[in-house]
């Protein structure tokens, strides 16, 4: 990463968070210099005060978003367009191609065909800038004001989060996410997903769906369009997924950046025993799939992934 800044320290990485008038919560120029604080990634200049669209953080806008989020059915959620810099998202999309095989966890069973970045993966500069932004104090404050959930806690190791990619024919059956962080035991409260797929058409499939938990009926369908960000509440009834497989031309994949947010306990529902991802909608599974699904939450990801690689090599032999 090449970086230039004004005469003072770059406020994104080192300096204080500053207000812009009374309604902004994002860092601004550290001086009145004509040269704004910025980074250069892959030859592309990004002004740091344009990484996040500050209009969303204004008090009036935040109040509107909070009303929309809390009234949404079948569970609280929000869809935002243009929350992040398009240039940044283009660079994140390119970051996928720079990760090696060992940086990915591969899922291949009757419920899911996809891959996600390993915990503690060293992301490219663009992806790291994105995650640093959404895990910052001002953004956490924004999420708390929108959702009403106080004391949100991030996961910088990205267990379950990070970069996600769905190949041709890939899917993720309707499910309820894990309810606790696998290491810290913190309660899973929110998930934020930003999509990176330019010119994605409905015919390409893989829309994110929200279903009513009782009736098992689809209530919301969100196309994974470039620049679209979905935020939704996590509970034992937040049934979601993209069961419609990817069917994009020329081998295109579905890419997104995902982050979970936690709290130290919760009072909004009765505490339940810690569980991994649950698939309430019945799908015929082989004994092998059942064992693999259980093992991936008991064994280190590197062991599971090594087993899959060995299986593939044996098949080729």
CATH superfamily placement of the largest domain: q2cbj1_9rhob like domain
> Helix share of residues?
10-25%
Strand content: 15-25%
N-to-C terminal Cα separation, in Å?
A: 42 Å
Instruction: Please summarize the sheet with the most strands.
Output: 7 strands, antiparallel
Name the overall outline.
Answer: globular
Given the structure, what is the number of helices?
6
User: Total number of β-strand segments?
Assistant: 14
| CATH fold-level assignment of the largest domain | Jelly Rolls
CATH architecture of the largest domain: Sandwich
Biggest sheet, strands in spatial order?
4-12-9-14-7-6-5
Instruction: Name the poorly predicted regions.
Output: 1-34
Order of helices and strands: EEEHEHEEHHEEEEEEEEHH
- Give the class-level CATH name of the largest domain: Mainly Beta
Write a compact overview of the structure shown.
The chain has 317 residues and is of the alpha+beta class.
Structure description:
This protein is of the alpha+beta class. The chain folds into two domains: 1-50, no CATH class; 61-316, Jelly Rolls (Sandwich), CATH 2.60.120.620. Helices cover 22% and strands 23% of the residues. The strands form three sheets. It has a seven-stranded antiparallel sheet. It has a four-stranded antiparallel sheet with strand order 8-13-10-11, with no helix packed on it. The chain has a three-stranded antiparallel sheet with strand order 1-2-3, with helices on one face. α1 crosses α4 (137-147) and α2 (86-95) crosses α3. The radius of gyration is 20 Å and the shape is globular.
